[in-house]
């Protein structure tokens, strides 16, 4: 049976759920020792309580199960009840509920680090992946409050944004920017200039497979290898994704659901082929 275009999002979701033990993806650059390591288990996230401000690499260890861990910024003066209300609202809200802002995050499959910006104040790390019961993991305790302390002189190294090699713009509902990238280790600057949350998942087509084949495939995983991913980024936010690119064709796509139609953005056209010559 061939999947039609509308079934595509569901097939990809299934692919992501089923994505296991794929060991042939290219390693991304090693995480910085000053980064934030998050260990995810079923019903539990562990991470530092306090981190310095600035651009910090986030690293995900999936000790048990698959997780999508997003760093949400809350107002710096958010109270404990406001934090709890936000965490509760995350489960059912299609987009990031106010007053939270998604600053980027780590895709399931522990595909590699992402670099996000922390300003002094209160953040919540939470897993937005849906379980078999339809609820996001955050509902079962996979959240953590992260305090970002005030800046000191020693933080100056992390104060400036990392130097990117390519820019990926995200709008409702498309990726904008060059359709050709350079092979080798790259740092993608991922910018959301749209009005909805977006993400960037990157898969590399296997030799001989076309974008059309991939879109129509019953099992997209057989035609492409998922390489890297940036989880939810809210409008106006910027985050960075390190990736090592090989010669070939990559597909960028977004599985965030549209608030009105409930359809994943990929079904609304948010996918793009990018060549790496
Ligand atoms: Cu999107």
Automatic annotation (TrEMBL):
PROSITE patterns: PROKAR_LIPOPROTEIN. This is Uncharacterized protein. It comes from Gemmatimonas phototrophica.
